[in-house]
Amino acid sequence: MIFAPCRAARTIIGLALICLGTASGCYVPHTKQHLPMPMPTDPVPANTPRELQKVTLPPYTIEPPDVLTIDAVRVVPKSPYRVNTLDVLVVNVEGTLPEAPIAGPYAVEPGGILNLGPPYGPVKVVGLTLDEITAAIKAHLQKTLREPEVSVTLSELATKQLITGDHLVGPDGTVTLGSYGSVFVVGMTLPQAKAVIEQHLAQYLEAPEISLSVTGFNSKVYFVITQGAGVGDGVNRFPITGNETVLDAISQIQGLNPTSSKRIWIARPINGPDGCQILPVDWNSITQKGTAFTNYQVLPGDRVYVEEDKLVAFDNGLAKLLAPVERIFGFTLLGTNTVSSIKFFNNRGAFGNNNFNNNF
User: Fold this and answer.
1) Which of 183, 189, 308, 329 is most buried as measured by Cβ atoms within 10 A of its Cβ?
2) The pLDDT of residue 59 is above 70
3) 74-98 pLDDT, tens per residue?
C-alpha cells in the first residue's frame, strides 16, 4: 500500500516539471548551449567542388608533423675526403696469392680498420684520404707480397644513411639530417624543399641530388563533429587525401549514430569577417536518391557537422533534470518501506504472543 502513493507522487512531480519546462519554452539545460544550423549568408556558388565536379588541391605545403621520405640520388663527398667508420671501399689488388685474392667491397669496421682477410690481416684506414689508404695498404701487403698493385675507390658513404629514409618535420619546422644538420622546410612545396635541402648538403657534398616525397600527410586534415544530444560531442580528425566527399567523411565514423539527426552541413573556414562558409547537406538526397549536388568535396580544414536528434537531446536533458528528484524519492521510498516493514513484523510478533498466552 506504500508504493502507489510514492509512485503517484513521482509521476505528478515529473509531469509538473515537464509542464514548467513547456511553459518556459521547452527549456532543457543542455540545448541552450547548441545553436541551430547556421544559415548560409550567400547562396552556395555553382562552382563549389562536388562529387561529380571535384577539383585538385593546390601544391602541398609542408608543415609539422608531416613525414618526408628522402632518397640520396647522388652523394659525393668534397675532396679531400677522409674515410669514416662504416664507409665502404672497393679494393682491388694485383699480385696477390692465388688462393687469397683481394677484390671487391670492404666495409671500414668499428675501430677504423679495413680487414683484408687471412693471410693479410687488418689495416688502419680511418681518417685517411683515398691516396693515403692506397699507400697504407700497399705498405702493409709488401710484408707478404712481392710487388702488389693497389687501387682503392669509395663505394658508399656511411653518412648516406643519415640522408636516406623517413624524416619527421619537427615542431620547429625542420628536418634533421644527422651530422649534416637541420633544414627548415615549413611552408614550402616539395620542389622548394628539395632545392633547399640540396643547397644545404652542398656545404659537405659535391653537387648533391636527392628525391623528396611525402609519405605521412599529417598536417592537412578535416574534422567530423557529431553533436552528442547532451552526452558529449564527438570530434574525429582525419587526414585529407584530396578525394573525400561528405559521404566519405560520414563513412569514416561508421555512419550516423542513434543520437544524430539528418541535419548535416560543412563549416568551411574562410578569410573575412564571417569566418566561415556554410554548405548545407541534403542527406536523404545523397543516400536515397544518389544525388551528388550537395555531396560536397571536403577540403583541408573543413568541419563536417552532424546535428543531434532533438527528441533524444530532450529526453537526455529531462533525464538529467529528473535524476536528482528520482534519487530523493528512491531514498524516501526505501526509508518508508523499511519503517513499514519493521512495524509490520513488530505487530505480527505482538499478535503471536497474545495467541500463545490465550492457548494456555
Assistant:
1) 308
2) yes
3) 888 888 889 999 899 999 999 999 8
The three-class DSSP label of residue 235 is: strand
Reported residue count of the chain is 360
CATH numbers and ranges of domains, the chain: 41-57+220-310 (3.10.560), 67-76+160-216 (3.30.1950.10), 90-156 (3.30.1950.10)
| Residues 175 and 163: beta-carbon distance below 8 Å | no
Q: What is the pLDDT of residue 75?
A: 86
> What per-residue confidence (pLDDT) applies to 225?
95
What is this structure's pTM?
0.67
Residue type present at position 178: G
Alpha-carbon distances of 225 from 228, 300, 317, rounded to whole Å: 9, 15, 20
Q: How far is C-alpha 100 from the chain's CA centre?
A: 56
Q: List beta partners, residue 115.
A: 122
Best CA proximity match to 70, nearest among 154, 155, 156, 183: 183
Q: How far apart are CA 178 and CA 197, in angstroms?
A: 13
Cell of 349: 510478533
